[in-house]
Amino acid sequence: MNILVLGSGGREHTFAYKITQSSLCDNLFVAPGNAGTREIATNIPIAVTDFSAIKNLVLEKNIEMVVVGPEDPLVQGISDYFAKDEGLKDVVVIGPSQEGARLEGSKEYAKEFLFRHNIPTAAYQSFDAETVNEGKQFLETLSAPYVLKADGLAAGKGVLILQNLEEAKLELENMLTNKKFGAASEKVVIEEFLDGIELSVFVLTDGKNYVTLPTAKDYKRIGEGDTGLNTGGMGAISPVPFANDAFMKKIEEQIIKPTVDGLAKENIDYKGFIFIGLIKVGNDPKVIEYNVRMGDPETEAVLPRVKTDLVELFNHVGAQTLDTVQLELDPRTATTVMTVSGGYPEAYEKGKEIKGLDTISGSESIIFHAGTTVNGDKVVTNGGRVIAITSFDEDFKGALKKSYNSIEKMHFDKMYYRKDLGFDL
Ligand code: AMP
Ligand code: GLY
After folding, report:
1. What is the number of H-type helices and E-type strands within the chain?
2. Ligand 1, atom 15: nearest CA belongs to which residue?
């Protein structure tokens, strides 16, 4: 079968890496892809939200499966676009309908869904420009820190955690009245602060049945010791050592099952990944967010641990037969360390030659390209997050040692990475 992956990051390189290992895949296309996907698939320079160009590509290349990496095309309704088109309706799209994608596209929608299905999450209220004053009064009833969330997609920047009440009121005003995050902050969710350690669980569902993929922990801040600005993610560890069987059972019973059942009950067409961000408060999991796609860089640590054929899994999603699948996992720990451009997540330069990748041993680490492209015969940087290095070992310390060792063999001008992953475990 011919398959198309949409996206250009480390997550999509990992999808491509797993898909090309499957005997079910004849030809793999990635749009737009990066220098890493170019080595194992055919890159097509079209944007992930250019639905008509994607349609033409799918028809021209006889593509039977489309795996959607990022959230934007999902929130814009790519699955519905395929379902409604006579020529595309039989293509298996891995990614939920536009309605399902609202779980990520609107924080208020997600909170309402969580409450409707009695899924543990922080208490909240939402406000708009008309109710700024009520919002300020609500803040007065809470204690610090104050959690403010822009309702819509804000490129991972829409959550503010503030220590001071006056500052929280000011930021609420900035978001609602001055549209600090544009249309994304026309509504704001104010939430109870949850104190605990974070982890993520990943679920693949066909809308009725599901399989639970390995857990992962991501390191979002740019600086060591979890300091400085938020990034897309500086590294990941899978599995999360504190997510033992008893805790996973709670997650399954209290969160995963009611989420999938809730989608089915509400007739929401959902065939794809659910990425559930959790905080462990005491001994209990609480949901902080849903994403309707895989995480990046979590995918680079999670998917290499899945031994089951990924295309076969996706076929079961299309046929709604995931209940017949027994997932096979690599029991070892995988760690991913992300190398980034100097300056990221603020301004950074592109076009720096990446050297030494060919000196990294394949038996020690897997190289996943994130923000890369080619310039002549050189691989060069093309984004903030550049190369992810994944390694396996019996525990996360051993795996990290291999990843760090491999990173020492590669280089680009102003390369940076965090050397303290796992410090909190
Ligand atoms: P989100 O975009 O909802 O994942 O939020 C971004 C980050 O803000 C999360 O990864 C958490 O570190 C933090 N966060 C979000 N909601 C809460 C909350 N209710 N309590 C504490 N931290 C939170
Ligand atoms: N690493 C976090 C995310 O993909 O949203």
Report:
1. 14, 22
2. 288
